[in-house]
Automatic annotation (TrEMBL):
This is Sulfotransferase family protein. PANTHER family: CARBOHYDRATE SULFOTRANSFERASE (PTHR12137). GO terms for molecular function: sulfotransferase activity. InterPro entries: Carb_sulfotrans_8-10 (IPR018011), P-loop_NTPase (IPR027417), Sulfotransferase (IPR005331). The keyword Transmembrane applies. It is a single-pass type II membrane protein. It comes from viral metagenome. Keywords: Glycoprotein, Golgi apparatus, Membrane, Transferase, Transmembrane, Transmembrane helix. Transmembrane segments: none annotated. The lineage of its organism: unclassified sequences, metagenomes, organismal metagenomes.
Length: 271
């Protein structure tokens, strides 16, 4: 009788879109290789910036000191290693094509593996990111003002794209710049997926999480009983997300920023 976390027998890749229950899946549902550690992979420019500013570095990595051993450990932990050529793994928030281009992930493994991802209502996901990054505390911005600024950042090209890193803050020129606010996580969910995802990736929904977990486990060979999956890494406050959408302008901006997600995954637009 199988137990959780379950190790898939064949080739399997979890495409982890930010704020879609990925940590719950990784820690409680599936046993997956993750070839990256501290903060799950840092962009090299971001790491270089941190290395030049000990105070900033210490603010997000309190145990660091000026000793060479600590610096070496940091460099090792922040690096992205090479993916296996077989087995079950997760990509984190790193873009699959960037990994392939950097020879960290083989095209053959990616193509032949069973791939899955979870998605979430775009309105709900943006509220979750707003809470998770503590935008109100970091910038003293209410949700409507934050959405307005984020809309401008998309328009100005200052939202870091999905790339060869798990986290990447907004640039110094952005009013949303903060080392603990990861701008790349605000991209539309479809940006993490291959263009032919409809034919190659099992899309699961956070709104039907338990049912879709059962479907996923069945498809990868799990035979056993399981308990309800505990929620991990969730925002501190669980307000109904629609309470944040009281202004027409905010709704219209979110509809525009995440148009691709609404169309791709069948979520209803608020007009």
């Amino acid at each position: 009788m199988d137990k959780l976390p379950y190790k898939p027998l064949g080739d399997c890749i979890f495409i982890h879109i930010p704020k879609t229950a990925g940590i719950s899946i990784y820690e409680s549902v599936l046993s997956l290789d993750r070839p990256f550690d501290w903060f799950y992979g840092l962009h090299h420019d971001y790491l270089n910036q941190l290395m030049k500013d000990p105070e900033k570095l210490k603010s997000i990595y309190p145990s660091i000191d000026k000793g060479k051993s600590s610096i070496k450990a940091l460099l090792k932990e922040s690096s992205i290693r090479t993916w296996p050529v077989h087995g079950a793994s997760m990509l984190g928030h790193i873009h699959y094509q960037e990994l392939i281009d950097a020879n960290k992930l083989t095209q053959t493994y990616f193509d032949q593996a069973f791939k899955f991802a979870f998605v979430r209502n775009p309105y709900d996901r943006l509220v979750s990111l707003y809470k998770y990054h503590r935008i109100q505390k970091q910038f003293d911005l209410d949700f409507d003002t934050f959405v307005h600024i984020l809309y401008q950042e998309f328009d100005a090209g200052r939202v870091p794209p999905v790339g060869l890193y798990n986290i990447q803050p907004f640039p110094d020129t952005s009013p949303l710049h903060h080392l603990m606010v990861y701008g790349n996580q605000y991209n539309p969910m479809v940006d993490w997926l291959p263009k032919n995802y409809r034919d190659t990736v099992l899309i699961c929904y956070l709104e039907t999480f338990e049912q879709d977990i059962d479907k996923l486990l069945s498809m990868i060979g799990f035979q056993g009983k399981r308990n309800t999956v505990p929620k991990k890494n969730k925002a501190k406050y669980e307000d109904p997300f629609m309470e944040f959408y009281t202004k027409k302008e905010t709704i219209e901006r979110v509809n525009h920023m995440y148009k691709k997600d609404f169309e791709a995954f069948g979520y209803d637009l608020i007009n």
